[in-house]
Amino acid sequence: MILELNNISKKYKNKFALSPVDLVINEGECIVLCGGNGAGKSTMIKILTGIEKSTTGKVTFHSKRKKSFAYMPDSMNFPPEFTPIEILQYYGKFLDVKKEKINQVLEDVGLWDKRNQRVGGFSKGMSQRLNLAQCLLADTDIYILDEPTNGLDPYWVIQFKQVIQQLKEQGKTIIVSSHIMRDAIEIADQVLILFNGKVKSFGTLDQIYEEHACESLEEVFLSIHKKEQAAG
Ligand SMILES: Nc1ncnc2c1ncn2[C@@H]1O[C@H](COP(=O)(O)OP(=O)(O)OP(=O)(O)O)[C@@H](O)[C@H]1O
Where is the ABC transporter domain (predicted)? Predict the structure, then answer.
């Protein structure tokens, strides 16, 4: 196991954004946190990364590295007057990253040709790819990505999935949040389904389909939705 959540919960005022959850994540797996708007995906990610303090419980990283995870937030406001290369060099200094790695990451996210352009003129998708690039700079065991495919066009969604595949081949652990079920189907080893701050399922797609007697994630979501509505 590389990451452990024990009795993690988050309450804002009187409402649970995340009801208490225990979770074990194994090394080398890609976990997709799936759920609709307000399900608790970002809350869980923020607790994992330490951005938010949990109301109860403890997160334990079992990585032996100094930097135990890299993080891609759902959006980043990069200083508009800087260029991708300047921004990645800045991050690279803290991470002790070599120039070659910065160049490689810029290639991987398709920003090599734009490396000297000011990011103030970037589209949402280009900024999101730079956001992914800053996350990929770190050589670490766990990559935590919050809605990484947001704003990406279909070509870059496919490229993103290839980047994830490469990380998996290197034995990295990846935690991705997404409300796009196709993302989960294509990249997840295990899917965690959140609904109204509650973990409704955690397992492989086959396990989840069996548990809910469904044949697709869409059906699983509809079935959870119906049950929750019926329960009031
Ligand atoms: N800082 C906050 N203060 C109060 N409530 C919050 C705060 N952050 C999140 N919430 C609430 O917690 C719940 C879960 O929100 P969260 O952002 O984790 O959902 P999400 O699954 O990431 O949704 P989305 O796909 O819409 O981004 C929501 O009801 C949200 O309104």
Answer: 3-221
Q: Name the residue range of residue 225's domain.
A: 1-68+172-232
Rounded average pLDDT over 35-56: 95
Helix, strand, or coil (residue 126): helix
- Our answer on whether the CB atom of 51 is closer than 6 Å to any ligand 1 atom is no
Reported as a single tens digit per residue, the pLDDT across 60-101 is 999 877 778 999 999 899 999 999 999 999 999 988 899 999
What would the two tokens of residue 25 be?
């994540």
pLDDT in tens, 111-121: 999 999 999 99
ipTM for this prediction: 0.97
Ligand 1 centre to CA of 41 (Å) is 8
> E-strand spans in the chain?
3-12, 15-25, 30-34, 56-61, 69-72, 142-146, 173-178, 190-195, 198-203
The number of folded domains in the chain is: 1
152 domain-assigned = no
pLDDT at 179: 84
Torsional sign, CA 220, 226, 231, 232:
positive
Q: Is 60 helix (H, G, I), strand (E, B) or coil?
A: strand
**What pLDDT sits at residue 183?**
79
Task: Please state the atom number of ligand 1 nearest to the C-alpha of residue 194.
Answer: 21
**For the domain that residue 47 is a member of, what is the CATH number?**
3.40.50.300
